[in-house]
Each structure stands twice: as C-alpha cells, then as structure tokens.
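user: can you give me the structure for this one chain? tokens are fine.
assistant: on it. calling the predictor now.
[tool input]
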Amino acid sequence: MYKEFGNIDALMHCINEDKTISGIHSATAGRFPVRFVLFNNFNDYYDFVGRLMDNGVALTSVNDWLDSTYPDILINYVRLSEKIASLVKEKETTDLVIAPFSELARFYDNKVNKEFDAIISTIKAIEASQKAFDAKQRVYIPIVGLEGKMSRFFTDSQIYIWYFKNQEAQVNYRLILTNNTDYGVDGLAHNYSIVRNVNEWLRLWRNQQMKPNIICTSRSIFAFAEYAQPDNAFDFVTCNSCHEFLIKGLGLKLEFLSHVGTSTSHWESLAKEINAISFDFKKFFNAKFDIHALAGYDVFIKTWFENNSFFDRWLLVSYYIEKFCDTGYICAALKEIKGYSNVDIAQALLLTIFDLKDSEAYIDERREVLAYVSKEGIVLSDGIQKKLEEKLIGIAQTLGYSTALRYFSLVTNVEKALVIYWLGKGYIQRDAVKELYPDIYHYLGRTFGVKDSESKWLLSYFDDYKFAKVANSYSTKVKNAIGSYNHDSATFYSWYNSFSNTRTLLNNRKDIEVYFWIDGLGFDWVPFIQYIISERHNDNYYLNEVLAARAELPTKTDINKKYLQLLTQREDLPKSGDLDKLSHISRQYPQYIIDDLAIVRKTINEILNNNPGKKIAIVSDHGISFLSQYLPGFNLPGFVSDHGGRTAIAKKPTIDNRYIILDDNKTLCALRHNSLCAKTHDGCGCHGGCTPEEVLVPIFIVSSQPNASTWSATIEDFEISASNPVVKFKIKGVPFDQTAMVEYNSIEYQLNAVAGDVYSTPHLPLDASAQTILLKIGDKSQTFNLKLSLGSVEEDLFEF
C-alpha cells in the first residue's frame, strides 16, 4: 500500500502504528516485513534514519557487502536482493534499516532489463520467519529521489511504500560524473566532494560528508549513469571529455576556447594548470605569457613565435579572438585558422585576404605581420603555394602587376619565384621589389670592383648577365659582348691578362687573419654580398675592399684550388658554401636563383658570426654561368668532354674562334656560351670555359673597422660646349664600393673613370634651362654650376 506524509512526525507516527499493529491487517503486515520509505531530499532521509536508530533500529550499510579487493565493482541487483533476504533471515528478531540502498539501486538498468523493478519486486516479497513474525520484525529501506521509478508500484497492494514528500523547496545535489579522471585539476576538494569508486560513493552517504557538488570518477558509476534517470534528488552532469568537465562540470567560463582546431589534448593540458579554488582565466593568461596588453597584432605574432607548444598557441588564439577581434586583418585570419603549427598560421595569414570584401583595407597590417612570419623560414605545401600563386596571378591580370605586388609577402617560395619571373618578363621593374625582395634587388644592383678603364665593360656585362639569368633567356646584349670581347683567343686574352689571380693579389698581405673559400662564387655576386655585409654594420663588420681576380684556365676547382691553398700554406683551406656542387644539379628556373641567394646569404653570415673582430678574406676558385643552358652545344667531333663541354680534350686541335687552346696543346676552353660538346642540361650552371662569369672571381676583405668615407671633387671646366657636351671632374677618395653618378636635367648618368682621379660624363643632351649638374656618390652629393655654349642660330635670309 502507498501513503504520503507532509511531515516527518506523521511518518514516524505511522512507523509506530505499523510496529504495534493488531487486528485484521496485522497478519499481512507481519508476513511481509520490508517497508520502502521515500524521500525527496537527503536531509529528511538522514533525519529519518537517525530517529530509527534512536528507537533501537539497527543500521546495515550496503557498502559492507562490496568486495574490498574490487572497490569499484557495482554489486548486481540479484546479489543485492540475496544479501538483503539473507540479512532479514539472519536478524529475524531485529528491526533493520538498510542504507544507503537507493544510492546503489538507482544505477541499475531499468530501460532494457528492468533490473530496478526486479529488485524492488524481489525485496517486497521477502517473507518473515515465524520468529520474525512473532517479534513483528520491520525492515526499512530508505529511497531518495527515485519517485519516478517507484511510482509504478504505488498501486501495488502487496507492497508498503511510505513517501514523505516535503513541500519545502529542495536543492538537488549536483553529481559530476567522469570516467576515472579529474583531469588533474588542482584544489577540487575545497568546493567538491570527491568520490573515486563505488565504495567511497556509498560511504559518502552513510557518513553524511557530502558537499552540494560531488565529483565522481568511478568507472562503474560512470558506465551506469544513464540508468539513473529520472531522479528528483540529483542533477546529473555526465562529462565525456575534459572540455565538458571544465565547462559543464566545474562551470568555468571557457566557452570561448571552443573553436576550430581545438583538440582534446588542449583541454587536458589546460586542466592541469587550473586551481579550482580561485581560477581566473585573464590572470592565468597574463601570468603565463607575461603580457598584459595583447591588443596589438604585433604583440600577438611575437608571442606566437615565442611559444612553440600547440597548447600555448591555442590559448593565445582563443583569448585574442575573444577579447580583441572586433576589427583587423589578423582577427579575420585567426577565425580561419585550422590548427596551431607555423604552417597553419602562415596559411591563414596568406590566404584569408583573398576572401575579404575590402581586401585593400587590410594590406598594410597583413604585410607587417607576414614580414615577421617570413623570418621564420616556414615551408608550405605545394597545394597551398599553388593556391596562393593562382590568387596573385589573378590580381595581376585584373588589377595590374604593381597592385598584385602589394599582396606579396615572400613567406613562400612561389612568391619569390613569381617576383623573379615578373622581373625577367619586364612586368615589374627592379625598384618595385627593393623592400619586398631586397636580396634579388641587390643581386641585380650595379656591379663594381673593376678599376681598369679598359675593363670597365665587364661591369655592364655582369649587369646584363644577371638580368639575362633572371629573364631565363640569352639576351642580345650578352651575345654581342661575348661576340666582341671573346671573339677569339686574342680578344679574350687582351682582357683576361689584365687581371691577376687571387694568390698574386693577396700574396704580400700580412693583415689578413683568416681566409674562407666559397666554391663557385663569381663576380656577379659582388653587389649582393656588399649588401649582406652592410646589414652587419651594427655588429662591427665592414667591407673594406673588393678586388677582381681571374681564375686560372680551365676554370675548374682542381686547377684553382691549389693556388688558393698557397695563401695559407695549408691544404685544408676553410671552405664555406658550395655553389659549384649545386650548379651541377638540374633545378627548375627560378629555383636555382632562390636557392643560391639563400646559400650565399647564409654562408657570408656564418663566416662573419664565427670570426668577430678578425680581418677576413673571402675568395673563390671560379664562377658559374647559367646561360649555356639556353644555347646548343657545338658537338665538335673527336673532343672528349669535361665539365659539360665547357672544357675538353682533343689530340690535335686546330685553331678555332670557338675555343682557346691551352699550353699543353690539347686542353680546350669554350670562348662562347655554347659548350664544345653536348648542350648544357636545363636548370644547370657550368664552369670550365672562358666567359666572364666563369673567369672573374671576387675577393672580399672584411674587418671590424670601416673605411674613411670622405671624398672631394672639383669640376675641370664649367664651360660646356654643344660640340663636346662632356663634363669632367677630379674626384679624390671615391669609395671602392660606390659608383660616381651625376644628375643633369633630372636624368642620372654614370661617370666613367678616365685616368687617375679624373671621371667624365657621357655626352649630355644640353638644355639651356638646365645650368647645374649634381654629383652623387653614395648618400652624399655636390652641386656644380655650368656655363653652356650652345652656339647661335643664324637668320635664314631666303625665308619669305
């Protein structure tokens, strides 16, 4: 039978009446001693059990029936019902209260197997022995919060159910369930009751030690938690992940951390750094990263690269998006980020702009951020680079190449390749890439270092060679110069013999402390290396001299290495970098340009870094030509090829203007870019022949002291006539690495060294309105006044 009570006293009165019952109903009451007593809160439950015990009722705890060896094994409903039946029989003359019962029974499967119903039906049918009947034994089983499950028995006349339904508002216990973990969160015990197994769970209720919030990490309870509903005493919070535990379980305001790219490991790492007593994410974040003003994107990107762990970067991105992402490019990019590697952020920063409506508004911020990213040497996949390339080409075709350059960053290889390709095609000019790609800008800078006026043509030749190399074609200017200065043996030797080899130039130098040899470094690298060393002025590295030397013929390493070794009288002359080795590997245009720029930069900086305060000579054995790949080989019969046909052996060679014959009368060196035998492979450099880029090598003298940088100039004659429109200057102290220039009528002209300290302009197009000329050397200039004699115009007497 089912009864409800409005207060505890009424319930206890019923208990007493039932215990002393007589008359017609006493037989049934005595035959079935089990009484199920329902409560909707634990306070009433504890009050009830306490009153029973005060009245001599014996308490039996269910957890005493658990196997102590396996404290987290949930006793099944059959065994529990057997234990209760056995207890009732054993204590047949004693009144019993069995608790906690519902804290175990609530987890029995009543969805499929109806285990809860089964145990209730079994227990209610327990019959008293004759002794128990005579003693009017009563067995009380308190049940808390299972009104829904027990309701199906309310109409059962063969069961005793008494329900104290307290009408006062009750606060349910909050049960936070996890699968055997608290995720390493510190300080949980301060605000939560912690239960690790079934045994601790049952003891918690017996000892009345629970807090309103309970964290239960029992595997068994977690596994059977789905069967506990409905329940009007507990609010269950089942946490299947660390993310759910921190947010749903502990109630931490961390929802903003849930975004694309978040992984389980991130949450678990965060949990280990949380103290649940007083966790404040802002304070935690500021302390962790030692920053208190993250709003600037420059601070964000710097912090990103200072913290390599994906966990740290996850926190950084999440917090930045939450607090500062109202506007700005980096915010738009971070919302598209798919992970926390350098590749992920580089991809987002590179590509997001192409999907924004007002992309021009974000270009400056994107450029600044990517300038920082580019220093990290991040390598993106071919797929990402291909997509970026398509976007950049699309902008160039629709908005023009100058606009497209604004979207470049040089983070990727494909961007560098596009810059070189567009330079080669003439779509953009060299000045347009000075800030964007300074390495290629300075590589294409004016060549200097040849002092002899008869050999000055080599400076313009090397400039033409470099542009042909970048243009991936054999230019007319290079062809004409080679046809003239390498026309035959005589013309070649006329300029070749005006240079000395490296050993001769440095033979008596006592000031050089260390020598370094870069294999394959030609004279075309002079302006680029000057630029690299100029970047190190703050570290007290200065380029003091650049000398031009010739390689011995044929221009091969084994021929020239022995002369270099004589500089130090050592066979182990330090060798840094190896352009030679790479030049023989077929590489796609313009990859070999990109590679070699990076190698030269790295090599020069390594030499400087390892030799602070020393006077250094950087030398080379020979140069490399990349133009032979564009021309067919001569395939001369009977010639044994060496170094790709740049040099060859022939038994009885005849005089021919396509090659020179060395003193052994069998070794031949190509005068032209056409190799003597088969064509040079595409994408390969070569050496061994007689072209200027193979023959002429630089010598760089570097020290910790700068050269004196003062120069003085006078004009030889300020009166300039139309018949000889040339201005001459006498200039003293021109720095070796500077080119003397003049500006006349807003046009720049390069001065030519005549003799000694005398320099002259080319023929100038005189203009009566332009009466001054500006001399410029480096960052200094001087203005001179001119007096022009343009002649008079006679009146035509026959004009009508």
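assistant: here you go. The CA atoms of residues 745 and 767 lie 8 Å apart. Confidence is low (pLDDT under 50) at residues 792-800.
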